[in-house]
Specification:
By secondary structure, this protein is an all-beta fold. Helix content is 0%, strand content 60%. The chain is built from no helices and eleven strands. Strands 2, 4, 5, 6, 9, 10 and 11 form a seven-stranded mixed beta sheet that branches. A four-stranded antiparallel beta sheet has the order 1-3-8-7, with no helix packed on it. Strand 9 and strand 10 form a beta hairpin. The mean pLDDT is 96.
C-alpha cells in the first residue's frame, strides 16, 4: 500500500507564494496520474491541478497562470507551486494519486495540509 505525505502548507499573506510537496512511499509498481485537490470550509472538494505519468497537466480555471504542478518521478513526488495567492485559495490541500500496486490498481489520498492566505 502507498502512503502519500503532504508538506509545505502554512500561513501566507495575499500575493505571496507557497510550494506544496507530496511524497509517495510504500510498495507499488508505478504511480500514474497525480493531482492536488482542495476543500474550503463548507465547500466541496475540488480539483486544483493534475499531472499524468507523461507530465501532461490540467488546471482549474481559478488557478491557471498562478499555480504550477510538477512531478519528480525519481523521488515519487508531486509539487504544487502557488504564486499570487488570494484569500479564496484558503483551504485544506490534498494530494491524490492513481497507483498501480503489486496486485491491483487503486486511488490514494494524502492526509491534507492547511493553506491559509490572509488578506
Amino acid at each position: 500500500q502507498v502512503q502519500l505525505v503532504e508538506s509545505g502548507g502554512g500561513l501566507v499573506q495575499a500575493g505571496g507564494s507557497l510550494r506544496l510537496a507530496c511524497a509517495a512511499s510504500g510498495s507499488f509498481r508505478s504511480i500514474n496520474a497525480m493531482g492536488w485537490y482542495r476543500q474550503a470550509p463548507g465547500k466541496q472538494r475540488e480539483l486544483v491541478a493534475s499531472v499524468t505519468g507523461e507530465s501532461s497537466t490540467n488546471y482549474a480555471d481559478s488557478v491557471k497562470g498562478r499555480f504550477t504542478i510538477s512531478r519528480d518521478n525519481a523521488k515519487n513526488t508531486v509539487y504544487l507551486q502557488m504564486n499570487s495567492l488570494k484569500s479564496e485559495d484558503t483551504a485544506v490541500y490534498y494530494c491524490n494519486a492513481d497507483i498501480t500496486g503489486l496486485v491491483w490498481k487503486y486511488n490514494s489520498w494524502g492526509q491534507g495540509t492547511q493553506v491559509t492566505v490572509s488578506s
